[in-house]
Design a protein that fits this description.
homodimer; Rossmann fold; 6-phosphogluconate dehydrogenase C-terminal fold; 3-stranded mixed sheet
Chain lengths: ~300, ~300
């Protein structure tokens, strides 16, 4: 533990103030991690709303103003525009500043942002693995990162002191921190996040397209399991489009395995192979237990949604 | 509304006292729907535990004793043994009694139970669409059915008074009631429950089998979406094996559509068709809103799992 006097950063610039950017601002304030938080977003509506909520000390139309003199700059937009944003802000980045991001993919971020980073700026890609199905500045809250993992993927030769400082920052936001290779990150997230989102979007789409079952029936009887998928399938469309377009290789790899496994289950159902089904269903139950033991989900039945049951 | 003096049934027999049977007992007590609740289960351990909790007035090793003189008999075991149970209890069923069940499939229940029902007994298949990932007598709670739908699938020519009485019973347990054809029920549930469970079991299985990503990584980073699937994939293995073996036709039909749709998404990712992805992801968001508006799920972010965010 280092003893700190005063905030960790003089000025943090958040480029993008949706769910993640806004939550970071709240968490930075809660942890007194920066003397000044500057925010930027292209959207006038979002900028106005963020100003009203007031989680940033200053909101800027011009991203160059937001990042000027900042010692921590965080890309919080959908990953599809990271390259453009990085190119735009590059001339105003302060030597010695840390440039990081919160994108759900990392190889593509290194590819798109890396070339624009000026000498003397420490580019350390990152990904806080936390979120909700809500989006926009009103969705942000200080506790979003509490107990969740943040993965940093520093490039070979990255400045160790800068990496440590960014680790300290995320811990101050409530996160636990892990360092990983970008390519490995993308594969891990493909299975723990990207493909689960894709199949959730897909089943909700399939349900919407049925001729024999009405939309009203799907809604009414959704408590049988379907409703859980709709939460995930309510996540931000722009963000998720960009994730899939930018983690193609890993997503297709995991999706291939998922489909193979599903074909095997399909065959087991067709041929009445009950033992095979029972064995799988028993094995998967243990994974749930591990996630609860690791503090990554609640043990309460139905995620605690039942009126009175603890 | 009928005005009732005294309980709706003199004696209710619950054959099976796991999550659903136990919850029914609690709900029956809460609503004063029966003067006596008799329970049966084959398992000595479960029988002992159910007796300790005490939600039934009497627990029986012999199912014939449990159903004797009962005017409502409910099959609450996994559907795979319904036929055997029905054949066993048939001689002790009281004329005029209602025989129902809580199975997640209905065509197979009509097929397996129907032939054993004595003349004068009203067989009305049913399915309360409610549950949690927990199982066993300790998992039961009175509020499980509150606001959820219960589907009854009476056969052609069913006694209308008996159907009304069963409807009143389920409303007394907190449910809303819908009447449906068994075959249609099975198709609706295939999309709203069975296939969602199957793909949840499947993705958790796929994640367990990866060589390049450790189990520990899957657990740690599960907050990205995966953890939601593990809840569903922690459901009772016996119950779910029996569901898939007994709703084969509808599950395979929906699964075929799901796989077709997933192939289309896979292709869109491979070819970088962002607009197609964005359009689907926008459409699915609206389904979530409808489910919340219909009172079938919470509007709170992350199902309300976040520490402080409302």
């Amino acid at each position: 533990m280092t003893t700190r006097t005063g905030p960790l950063f003089t000025k943090v610039a958040l480029l993008g103030v949706g769910l993640i950017g806004a939550s970071m601002a709240h968490a930075i304030r809660r942890g007194s991690l920066a003397a000044h938080i500057a925010g930027h977003t292209r959207s006038p509506v979002t900028r106005k709303r963020a100003s009203e909520i007031g989680f940033c000390h200053s909101m800027h139309e011009d991203p160059l103003e937001a990042v000027r003199d900042a010692d921590l700059v965080v890309l919080c937009t959908p990953v599809g525009v990271f390259g453009d944003v990085a190119r735009t802000i590059a001339p105003a980045l302060k030597p010695g500043a840390i440039l990081t991001d919160v994108g759900s993919v990392k190889t593509a971020v290194v590819r798109d942002v890396g070339p624009h980073v000026p000498d003397g700026v420490h580019f350390i890609p990152g990904h806080p693995i936390a979120g909700t199905e809500h989006s926009g500045p009103d969705a942000g809250f200080a506790e979003l990162f509490d107990g969740r993992w943040c993965v940093l993927t520093p490039l070979p030769g990255a400045d160790e002191a800068a990496v440590e400082r960014l680790k300290t920052f995320w811990k101050g936001c409530g996160s636990r921190v892990e360092v990983m290779d970008p390519k490995h990150h993308d594969l891990v997230l493909a299975i723990t996040s990207h493909v689960p989102h894709l199949i959730a979007y897909n089943i909700v789409g399939t349900a919407s397209d049925l001729e024999q079952v009405t939309q009203s029936e799907v809604i009414k009887f959704s408590a049988g399991g379907f409703r859980d998928f709709t939460r995930i399938a309510a996540s931000d469309p722009t963000m998720w489009r960009d994730v899939f377009l930018n983690n193609r290789e890993a997503v297709l790899e995991i999706l291939g395995r998922f489909s193979e496994d599903l074909s095997r289950l399909q065959r087991a159902i067709r041929w009445g192979e009950g033992d095979m089904l029972f064995d799988l269903f028993t094995r998967t139950r243990a994974v749930r237990r591990s996630i609860i033991d690791a503090g990554q989900d609640t043990a309460a039945a139905n995620f605690g949604r039942n009126p009175k049951k603890p």
